[in-house]
Amino acid sequence: MKNVLVLLAILSLGFRGVAQNKQPNVIIIMMDDMGYGDTEPYGMTQIPTPSFNRLTREGTRFTHYNAAQPICSASRAALLTGCYSNRVGMTGALLPGDKRALNPDEETIAALLKNAGYTTGMFGKWHLGNKAPYWPTHYGFDTFYGIPYSHDIWNRDKDGTLITNKNDIRYTWPPLPLIEGDKIVDSITSKEKLSELATHLTEHSIRFIKQNKNKPFFLYLAHTMPHVPLAPSARFKGKSDLGDFGDEIMELNWSIGEILKTLDDEKLTDNTIVIVTSDNGPWLNYGDHAGSSGGFREGKSTSWEGGTRVPLWIRWPGKVEAGGINSMLMTNMDLLPSIVAATGAKLPKKPIDGINFLPVWLGKTTTDPREVFYYYFGKNNLEDIRYKHWKLVLPHSSATYSALHGKGGEGGKIGRVDAPMALYDLAHDPGESYDVQQNYPEIVKKMLELAEQARDDMGDDLTNREGKNRRKPATIN
């Protein structure tokens, strides 16, 4: 009888272990300014990317995935809240003196998963609030280690030399703070210390995985590279044929490889959703220190495809197709509801703009859930609309990288051009080169109606529309 009781106890523990691991772990790895064409699976040459290639073999690669806006803070707000960033009052890229922050009333992916029993951790670049209590541990993350904004927002130049010119805005900026939880624990004050950051973020992520392997976890690893200034670590410096940029991509490839290896070693691979993407397109005026838009027009800080179209890999063995390629229109806002559906968590109480793509990920439908995407930029400018494979450009002023690019870490000039109304067929013209509005007046009419719906909902500064359903950010005192 005693032996029977022991056996039943062991079986009970085993069943509880299965129940505990029923919910999949979720890992989002976000690159900073990595363009559509910066890895081998998306067309890069002369940079070996075996870990990105592994994701391509073992998961699905998405080819029409867009960040909600082509700039840091706005894109990250959209990812974490499932909303157009202008809906929640987050636009542009926050600088040290900015008094805006993501409103804590907005429910992030981390908060939703934490409420569903997950342990949550973030390591890397936050960029949604400059001081406590507007840091990750107040938005659903149990753990945070990283920096508050981009690593070029410091009082130093590209080589790490202290700024002494009082007319340079960087002179007024503080040293780059390194944060753990709610406390500043160190400052990054040199190029050498900056070069260690990718390694430290990877090590913290691996430690988090190992510590939480027996319960569901959500890991958000927000790398700071390949945003300038580039700072590859000593182990990767000079390893590629494309200078510091190539070295940096190789280091990010290494980081992903270490995460995937940890999942393998801890036998977590099959029960973990791995999502790898970028916040926006490349900062092209930096020339050889910038990446590739993969042939799409322009780059970061523009609403052309090179600014918002970024790579996306999703791996979930046995669930998401291995070696798959998906050309459906998808955005970073769609990750939140899809993850919620995959984990059994609850959607936010407030309305969101993301759409559940889980049936697509699982191969249960071939119909694209999303037909429309609004390209907002600036404070609240509706600059373009995507409807299926059509893109309507609305008249606006745009940055352009057609001027001379920089070299060796120096930024080239960024020009301005007036973009007139134009219609592009992205199925036949992904480079947005040939205006076909005269051929398809019915499509233009349909898309102008969609523009009016967006203006009524979220407003549009270009037409002086306020919008009915915008929410306010938090204000830092």
TrEMBL record:
Signal peptide extent: 1-21
Family, per entry: Belongs to the sulfatase family.
Sulfatase N-terminal domain: residues covered: 24-344
Gene3D superfamilies in alphabetical order: 3.30.1120.10, Alkaline Phosphatase, subunit A (3.40.720.10)
Annotated spans, Disordered: 455-477
Descriptive protein name: Sulfatase
Matching InterPro entries: Alkaline_phosphatase_core_sf, Sulfatase, Sulfatase_N
Keyword set, alphabetical order: Hydrolase, Signal
Basic and acidic residues: compositionally biased ranges: 455-467
Keyword Hydrolase annotated: yes
The species this protein was found in: Mucilaginibacter jinjuensis
Sequence ranges of Basic residues compositional bias: 468-477
SUPFAM superfamilies attached to this UniProt entry: Alkaline phosphatase-like (SSF53649)
Pfam family, one: Sulfatase_C
